[in-house]
Amino acid sequence: MISPASIKLVQTARRAVVSRASPVSTSLASRCCPRCGLSTVPARRRAAVVSDQTSGANYSSASPPPPSSGSSNASDAKPKRKPLTQEQKDFLSSALRVNQTGELAATLIYAAQTPLVVRQHPHLRPLMKHMYDQEVGHLNTFNKLIAKHRVRPTALYPLWSVMATGLGWSTAFMGREAAMACTEAVETEIGTHYNGQIRELIEMTQQWEEEGYEVGPELSELIQTLRRIRDEELEHLDHAVDNDAKKAEPHWLLTGVIRLGCRSAIWVSERV
Ligand SMILES: [Fe+2]
Ligand SMILES: [Fe+2]
Question: What pTM, to 2 d.p., does this model score?
Fold first, then answer.
């Protein structure tokens, strides 16, 4: 059953795709949550999450100048941008679509888990709120991006909404450890997923810079945004493990099923 809060989240996400949005803030996240004071610095970054770091290329908007043509007229002074290929446009659309879907699912999972978990373990209220608030922030970010770039949201919004709420409620019903194991599994897959996108974008922009093109602020900001959100997802993963996710029974089965479900949902949402 979907709670009124969950329905409101879905409605907000839907509204975002039909309205023009204001530019997304791209500043890097504070290292301490301004609301609850919880540290946002990942203590550890577990799981098979591969680093997106490359050879230290700089992706700031202060890109190197384009190759000189020997002319000094005004048109040559403009930044030289390489148009996106259809394949690159499709990749970006698919990335924004699946990210928005994933963040909606994350907010619904936490919304469903929190009442049951907090009732049994009141000391977890600040942590659950902290993680939920960060997920709402991620969802708002992708709602704005998907509206700004006129990307079609996933057609399976209602299905993912029901499944995410069901996953959150059922794992919380199983107990705190299972709820945390759910977070561990989801964030492991999401962290890996974001890293894949970041690597792809870095390879793409690095290639442009090597060819003498300017990357431009939008893609640079998108990479920074993805890195910030990826770090916050991995912070959630650490919180889950610190709160006995590994003690869920049977941990291997629970996390295995949830991770498989996440990978399947990502695969479908990238396409549908
Ligand atoms: Fe998130
Ligand atoms: Fe998360």
Answer: 0.73
